[in-house]
Specification:
This protein is an alpha/beta fold. About 35% of the residues lie in helices and about 25% in strands. The protein folds into 3 domains: about 200 residues, FAD/NAD(P)-binding domain, CATH 3.50.50.60; about 110 residues, 3-Layer(bba) Sandwich (FAD/NAD(P)-binding domain); about 120 residues, 2-Layer Sandwich (Enolase-like, domain 1), CATH 3.30.390. It is globular, with a radius of gyration of 24 Å.
Length: about 450
């Protein structure tokens, strides 16, 4: 009789947990996975996937406007929020069914209930204990909101995906990627959007040219951005709500949404009892192999607060399965991971910002292009695309690629391969562009941006 019931028990059937469990199961390992909500997790059920559907819907408003310049006579469109949400939910149901089938086909046992770690090799779910040689924690993260009076009146991104009605006006508190994405969604669907941010610009941590370009574009589309502002309390205001700032200003809207951060989802899963060490914010501490302070317990994805992106969680999970069950040790490489913000217009980036690159490499060559896309010339829309290359002057290696504009994520995905391979600016220059495209701009940039000191002297 074997010592353990399973070779690995995974807690959390989101993208990372499912990917790791499926890969391990395909190698013949005895795997169980526990989920107390819906199979698919945050990305599939209340994050990337449903949010992207709403972004697509919001982008159509601009397409209708632009069509006139190309000879189309489009009658005044009418939007049906209820139909969008129903269609979105139907697709999520389909995707959950696919995830369940994939687990079944990989011979992974699914326990539908909340799991808790009892000790280094035991997990309890639905009142029954199961043992495993290894335990994988992939419970993700959840939205957080500040403790201020009236915060119960506000919603998070979770609720925003299933509102019964589209609000006519909304206040979105926060300036990070989730806030920017939902601001674009609601603005594109016709709501009056006000963003409230503590800092001076959107997307803290991104390259400054990205932050400036997106702020300019969103403002031009009608999104109001109130910077250096904090909300002190929220109360009802007739049929809507009123947010009062720390300066005593009042902002009223039909709805108030908070997108001010996410916290590792670690409550009541037995970490302390099992001796798993965490950071002050609750994130599980792991080494480069995703191993926790308990040798038989591992953690991947947002619950570790390393690089909180769905493809990273999937890659971490698959690396663990290869290491434990396929005699193929893999350490996840977190360098040069591309990312995107599905704002309107979209943002994408890979590598270092100019500020971080200067800190790491010292002298740089920076190339930047701003232009009105060809499509806009007949539509009449004025919205400039921004593209940027950050180059280490000593090696000529491209260490950062940044873009704001249509199809930015699609373009940066391909360029991420070049950055990962260590491509040089000379190799970019030697690459023939596809004409006419926006992407060709990345291989035709020749003029360097003046050095910061030279700019200041002008």
């Amino acid at each position: 009789m074997e010592k353990f019931d399973f070779d690995m028990i995974t807690i959390g059937a989101g993208s990372g947990g499912v990917a790791s469990s499926r890969r391990a199961g395909s190698y013949g390992a005895r795997i169980a996975i526990c989920e107390d909500w819906r199979v698919g997790g945050t990305c599939v059920m209340r994050g990337c996937v449903p949010k992207k559907f709403l972004v697509y819907a919001a982008e159509y408003s601009g397409e209708f406007e632009d069509a006139a310049g190309y000879g189309w006579h489009v009658p005044a469109p009418r939007f049906d929020w209820t139909k969008l949400i129903a269609n979105k939910n139907k697709e999520l149901d389909r995707l959950e069914g696919i995830y369940r089938t994939l687990l079944k086909n990989s011979h992974v046992t699914l326990f539908e209930g909340r799991a808790k770690i009892v000790d280094a090799h035991t997990v309890e779910v639905l009142g029954k204990r199961h043992t495993a040689a290894n335990i994988l924690i992939a419970t993700g993260a959840r939205p957080t909101m500040p403790r201020i009076p009236g915060i119960e009146h506000a919603i998070t991104s979770n609720e925003a995906l299933d509102l019964p009605h589209l609000p006519k006006s909304i206040v979105i508190v926060g300036g990070a990627y989730i806030a920017c994405e939902f601001a674009g969604i609601f603005n594109g669907l016709g709501a009056e959007v006000t963003m409230v941010i503590r800092g001076d610009k959107l997307l803290r941590g991104f390259d400054e040219d990205i932050r400036d370009s997106l702020t300019e574009a969103m403002t031009a589309r009608g999104v109001k951005i109130r910077n250096h502002t904090e909300i002190a309390e929220i109360d009802g205001a007739g049929r809507g709500f009123c947010a009062t700032t720390t300066r005593g200003e009042r902002i009223t809207a039909d709805l108030i949404m908070y997108a001010t951060g996410r916290s590792p989802n670690v409550a009541n899963i037995g970490l302390e009892e099992a001796g798993v060490k965490t950071k002050p914010n609750g994130a599980i501490m792991v080494d480069s192999w995703s191993r926790t302070s308990v040798p038989s317990i591992y953690a991947i994805g947002d619950v570790t607060d390393r690089l909180n992106l769905t493809p990273v969680a999937i890659a971490e999970g698959r690396a663990l399965a290869e290491t434990l069950f396929h005699n193929n040790p893999i350490e996840m490489d977190h360098a040069n991971v591309p990312s995107a913000v599905f704002s309107i217009p979209s943002v994408a980036t890979v590598g270092l910002s100019e500020v971080d690159a200067r800190r790491e490499y010292g002298t740089l060559d920076v190339y930047r292009a701003r232009f009105n896309p060809m499509k806009n010339t007949l539509s009449g829309r004025v919205e400039r695309t921004m593209m940027k290359l950050v180059v280490d002057r000593k090696t000529d290696r491209v260490v950062g690629v940044h873009m704001v504009g249509p199809d930015a994520p699609e373009l940066i995905q391909g360029l991420a391969v070049a950055v990962k391979c260590g491509a040089t600016k000379k190799q970019f220059d030697q690459t023939v562009g596809i004409h006419p495209t926006a992407g060709e701009e990345f291989v035709t940039m020749r003029d360097k941006v003046p050095e910061p000191k030279a700019q200041a002297a002008e």
